[in-house]
Design a protein that fits this description.
CATH class of the largest domain in chain A: Mainly Alpha
Number of domains of chain A: 2
Number of helices of chain A: 5
Number of strands of chain C: 0
Chains: A mainly alpha (about 120), B alpha/beta (about 230), C mainly alpha (about 250)
Strand content of chain C: under 5%
CATH superfamily of the largest domain in chain A: Winged helix-like DNA-binding domain superfamily/Winged helix DNA-binding domain
Structural class of chain A: mainly alpha
Largest sheet of chain C: none
Largest interface: B-C, 27 and 24 residues
Number of domains of chain C: 2
Strand content of chain A: 5-15%
Distance between the termini of chain A: 30 Å
Oligomer: heterotrimer
Order of helices and strands of chain A: HHHEEHH
Shape of chain C: globular
């Protein structure tokens, strides 16, 4: 995974994991790599991964069983709302980007229709 | 959080030059720290004092609450920038030497690491390339189960393949009971490893902070921040 | 200390074996020539001379090596390794000095061993003359010379270590070390041997001891003085190595 060192690393990892969950790379209930394992794979500080897992646990996207590891949530609801959340952000970015270029919201819809 | 190293108003003078000027610094267990700065800024001097090679001119430094001495040398694993291994040694002699003199040296781990680093036991120290020597030194230093690792420019003059191996080895050594202090001016490659950074220039700490917080607040990588500051 | 000593021996074991083997072999060869039935004075003198020369060369090698054992750790990159291992300064110093002592003893035994065999080949009258002089002062003289040279190396170690405490650059370190060394020699001559020995002179005359104050012919008091100097310089050097040097 390529990192942009200009933004906090842990945020980038969180986004990447969320993405993987939504597209199904990480299945519901699947066991996540241990903190050490993931740190070694991504070549980042283990405390960063620790923070990632803490954040994901907080958002209830993952849950940690003491002594056993961190698992992806089994709640389908959570995953679908996550999908919703990410897609909303993409749309927001798109809209903002297009607006910056000078497209009004109506023009923006038309351009999109043409593309698709 | 427990502190493994504490420097208070630490100063080191060489004739008229202030290599370190009233430095206050502390290292907690279970974290990886970076001391970053331009060459000649005092990074190596700081590590050498912590390793027990230089004596402070003023101020104090304690490791595990003890002044540098025989005890601290037994819990601190120091990687100098220069080639400090005895020239008469072969690789296997270096391993045996560390095994004999350091109680916390894990020789099985070292032998595995040698394989990973692609080093042969029968090779003479004097015939090793710069990259090989760098990998050997790191193998020896990281195969000890020390409380504090001091790495002085571990990636200097190292080819890209060796560099990846070295970074992997450093991560493997990490544990909540150990601390790692890395000095480097090649920030790009190591910044993802760091919990906390100190910027040291002309013997003074001019900036310090949690790496991720700095990225957040300044909106730039530690590398860029370094270039901006220096 | 045994571990460090082991490595001091291990790293140069081939050289160690070579030099003593050479001394013994050359001694044996010369002895063989001298033992031939055709007996000539010149031959013996020549052989003794050659053996003495070989012996002297080996001795110089031992002394120089003894000095370099500490010098390289103080002034070269390997010092970073030596002074970060968890051993006290006195242990590091001791490991080097023990090897030096062992070598000096071994050298002395071999040299005197062959030397006495050579001398026994001399004609009767000459042996009597030499023997009467040597017997009286032999053992103290040997001890005196051993301790004197051991102390010599130790004083150089001290000078080098003191230099390393005061200076960080390599530039003037040679000069400073030599300066300190000669200053110490002067100090010892003027302050130590002189007045000290005057005191002892009175005591030994009263007790009627056989020890002679003339240093060249040796005497147990001189040996004792040397041992005190050794103790002083060892302690001082060990202290500096532990607490004061900057590598």
């Amino acid at each position: 995974m390529e990192f942009n060192n200009n933004i906090p690393i842990y945020l980038q990892i969180i986004d990447s994991i969320k993405q993987d969950i939504v597209v199904g790379k990480l299945k519901a209930g699947q066991k996540m790599p241990s903190v050490r394992e993931l740190a070694g794979i991504l070549k980042v500080n283990p405390n960063t991964i620790q923070r990632v897992y803490q954040e994901l646990d907080r958002e209830k996207i993952t849950f940690t069983k003491r002594g056993m590891g961190t698992y992806v949530t089994e709640e389908e609801k959570t995953i679908s709302s996550l999908k919703e959340e990410i897609s909303q952000k993409i749309i927001l970015d798109f809209a903002e980007g297009m607006n910056k270029l000078g497209f009004s919201n109506k023009e923006l819809i038309n351009t999109l229709k043409e593309y698709l | 959080m427990e502190q493994i190293l504490k420097a208070t108003q630490l100063s080191k003078y060489f004739y008229q030059k202030k290599a370190l000027d009233k430095v206050d610094l502390s290292i907690e267990k279970g974290k990886i720290y970076g001391i970053l700065g331009p060459n000649g800024g005092g990074k190596s001097t700081f590590l050498k004092i912590a390793a027990g090679l230089l004596k402070p001119s003023q101020g104090e430094i304690t490791i595990d609450n003890k002044k540098p001495g025989v005890y601290t040398k037994s819990i601190v694993s120091y990687l100098p920038e220069i080639n400090h291994l005895y020239k008469w040694m072969k690789v296997k002699d270096a391993l045996n030497f560390f095994k004999d003199l350091y109680a916390d040296f894990n020789i099985e781990r070292a032998k595995e690491s040698l394989k990973f680093m692609e080093l042969e036991e029968e090779e003479k120290i004097t015939s090793l390339s710069k990259g090989m020597m760098g990998r050997l030194k790191l193998t020896l230093v990281l195969s000890r189960k020390a409380k504090l690792y001091l790495l002085d420019e571990p990636l200097n003059g190292i080819d890209p393949i060796s560099r990846e191996k070295i970074i992997t080895s450093i991560l493997d050594s990490y544990s909540e009971k150990t601390s790692i202090l890395i000095c480097s001016h090649l920030i790009y490659y190591i910044e993802k490893l760091l919990d906390y950074v100190f910027f040291l220039s002309e013997g003074r700490i001019i900036l310090s902070g949690n790496a991720e917080d700095l990225r957040n607040k300044r909106g730039m990588s530690i590398d860029k921040l370094f270039q901006e500051v220096f | 200390m045994m571990t460090l000593l082991k490595y001091e021996i291990y790293r140069r074991w081939k050289w160690l074996v070579l030099r003593y083997a050479a001394l013994i072999v050359i001694g044996a060869i010369l002895l063989n020539r001298v033992s031939s039935p055709v007996y000539q004075y010149e031959f013996i003198g020549e052989s003794i001379g050659k053996f003495a020369l070989t012996s002297l060369v080996i001795f110089i090698i031992i002394i120089v090596e003894g000095i370099n054992m500490l010098k390289e750790d103080l002034f070269e990159e390997c010092g970073y390794l030596t002074f970060t291992i968890p051993e006290k300064g006195r242990t590091i110093l001791a490991s080097k000095l023990v090897l030096l002592l062992l070598q000096l003893i071994l050298w002395t035994v071999i040299t005197i061993g062959f030397g006495s065999i050579f001398f026994s080949k001399l004609p009767y009258q000459e042996i009597i003359q030499i023997k009467s002089q040597i017997n009286f002062y032999f053992f103290p003289t040997v001890l005196f010379l051993l301790t004197a040279f051991f102390n010599f190396v130790l004083m150089i170690h001290f000078s080098l270590t003191l230099t390393k405490t005061l200076l960080v650059n390599k530039k003037y370190s040679g000069l400073l070390s030599i300066g300190i060394f000669f200053f110490l020699v002067y100090l010892i001559e003027k302050v130590y041997y002189g007045p000290f020995l005057n005191q002892i002179k009175h005591i030994s005359i009263e007790v009627g001891s056989r020890s002679n104050i003339d240093l060249l012919s040796g005497g147990y008091t001189a040996v004792f003085l040397n041992i005190i100097l050794i103790a002083i310089f060892f302690t001082a050097t060990a202290y500096l190595l532990e607490k004061k040097i900057n590598i």
